[in-house]
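Fold this complex.
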Amino acid sequence: MSNDRVRPGRHLAAFSLLLLWEMPDHGLHLHRRINGVLPDGLQVDIGNLYRALRDLEVRGSVQSAWDTEGSGSARRIYRITADGHDELRGWSEDISKRRSAFDWFLGHWQALAESDGNVEARLHG
Amino acid sequence: MSNDRVRPGRHLAAFSLLLLWEMPDHGLHLHRRINGVLPDGLQVDIGNLYRALRDLEVRGSVQSAWDTEGSGSARRIYRITADGHDELRGWSEDISKRRSAFDWFLGHWQALAESDGNVEARLHG
DNA sequence: ATCATATATATGTAGTATACATATATAGTT
DNA sequence: AACTATATATGTATACTACATATATATGAT
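Structure:
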């Protein structure tokens, strides 16, 4: 449970769940929040975010309700569920592993680049 | 250049290039080396590795040659090229960004989990 | 009133990546 | 000759990403 949902690449779901835990939100604003924490080059596509949110709702990890209060177009507000917290725990384990792998990669890349003079050349050249 | 090849998910290419920089190798042995540095749950499929190596060769990032010396079946030995080093530099930038995003994710997840008592419950409960 | 723009939620689709299954050939062992 | 291990692949369904387009409502300008 929780972990059998975790598959490679689906980190849009992970970030969505985490930010919805911090605060329930609607798609477009969540999009700004996600892209606010992601670096350039990893920015999320709004269409894919809407799809990810619907998928999360289908599998019960979030619930949504229309919000017609206030001004502007109606917004669908998403909030995380108990199942969503389970899924999120699975994501944290998955992402922790990936970060370890990336640490290994970057450590070894730097070591090789330095021994090859590449980094020295770019830093001091 | 270098960076326009970097696309999400293709980290098999990144790890292959890095390990081939450390040492030229053939597919099956490279497979063992990659899985040796990757944690459980991120293990690489051998079929996908062979495909990744052919793709790398098509775009000029590695070169291969048959090795019929020694005992056993003939092996196709791959070695990284100058273009491969360029591609690898792009990967290191991409992976560095992803690690930052993962750092943010894990930091915030832990903070939320602690404030929610989840981690405390699992550690001391 | 009407036109343009912004907000908000979607769908269409091509290319790529991943997981899991299967195929083919050669070499070594009994 | 049969069996097993090594080595290199291909087949394929599903999923993810990027980029384009569609639809509806609300707001502001003229």
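The beta strands of chain B are 25-26, 62-67, 75-80.
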